[in-house]
Amino acid sequence: MEQRKSKILVIEDEKNMREILKMLLEGEGYGVSTAMHGNEGLDCLDRDIFDLIITDIKMPGVDGFQILKKAREISPDTFVIMITAFGTTESAIEAMKFGAYDYIHKPFKIDEIRLVVKNALEKRKLIGEVSILRDKIRTTYELGNIFYKSSKMQEILRVLPKIAQSNSNILITGESGTGKEFVATALHNLSLRKERNLVAINCASFPEGLLESELFGHMKGSFTGAICNKQGLFEIADGGTLFLDEIGEMPANLQAKLLRVLENGTFRRVGGTGDVRVDVRIVAATNKNLAEEIEAHRFREDLYYRLNVIPLHIPPLRERKEDIPLLVEHFIRKFSNSTKKISPAALKLLIQNPWKGNIRELENLIERVLLMTDKEEITPSDLPVELGSLPSGDQGLPVMSKSGIDLDVIVETIEKKYLLEALNLAEGVKTDAAKLLNLSFRSFRHRLQKYGIK
Prior knowledge:
Elements: E1 7-11, H1 15-27, E2 31-35, H2 38-47, E3 52-56, H3 64-74, E4 79-85, H4 89-97, E5 102-106, H5 110-135, H6 151-164, E6 170-173, H7 180-189, E7 198-202, H8 208-216, H9 233-236, E8 241-245, H10 252-264, E9 266-267, E10 276-277, E11 281-286, H11 290-295, H12 301-307, E12 310-313, H13 324-335, E13 341-342, H14 344-352, H15 358-372, E14 377-378, H16 407-425, H17 430-436, H18 441-451
Helix pairs in contact: 2-3, 6-7, 10-12, 13-15, 16-17, 17-18
């Protein structure tokens, strides 16, 4: 898998110096463009995006300071190294105050410039990776039967390592909240691309014009608000994986541009004139039936076949209820630092629920319940009233026997259940909830404090 070469622009008016730098840097494996004066350098900045600029400070016409200012303006992610002659160190230091990465004295040593360039590019890469890490899919990555016990999910997890090793595009289908992000993350972490970026974007979250810019990047001035050059997610994901969530929401004109990338590995930035080549594996996901979208002429059939090389379908949670106890246990650990647990009766209520929002709905409910109760065990009274109740005779209440029961505990459980139900029906308005229970506000508030209901 060939990785993209770091792109360096050398601006130097001395021909010999310019050629030496070009030969040296190309020998290190970088892609090098050169400009013989400042004006030509500015033209290069308008046409392309560079990882690093090496520019002389003193040049006729446009000097290094003007190059630095222009680079900071139109391509703020680009690092700039200044070349200065001995005796003008003050100018170089001043340039660093205005945003230059470093400076090199002329004449320079070969090993010195190699090291400065290497360090600059590594720092730029690190900054980019940290930024991507912040935006990465926040999905816990596990394999085996830790969170998934059902046979349907076990089969998916069984084939993941094998298909992850290929470079084929993958289309993940399933309802919203079923764990498509989890599968995409697992595929990347098991692939040969795991040392490179996993970049994700939800195609439904951006208007059409902005989505094109996010994916393919843009050049300064290409549209209103394009105040600087910007790399797109395809370039950032080069050598790695790009996860296109909700691919069924992608507008038709962008589908054509995406198809071009899949067919020949090239694209053009918005407002750009040259092709950019990338090596990216696509993992796409959708909750739509793309076959129906094709029939309705809302999705390109040729793009569908390019994406659907390896299809994966994630079943809804209602079809794999064996996974619910493990998921509940995981979410309790995730949102609680204590040893909280869930009672068998409460777990039965969760298992019988249809979960139209799938795993995401279950996760949100567990988080909300843990915030609302201080008890060590979650019981049916702690769950939202819309979950219903267990069938008669299966309410989780003890059966009266000769050994006796703890009536106070039973009464407290029932009382708390109706307090929470009243709050839910009153949408959290305590005065209204008190009226539903025919209690004074003072008495109602006392009971809330008694049971630690927030």
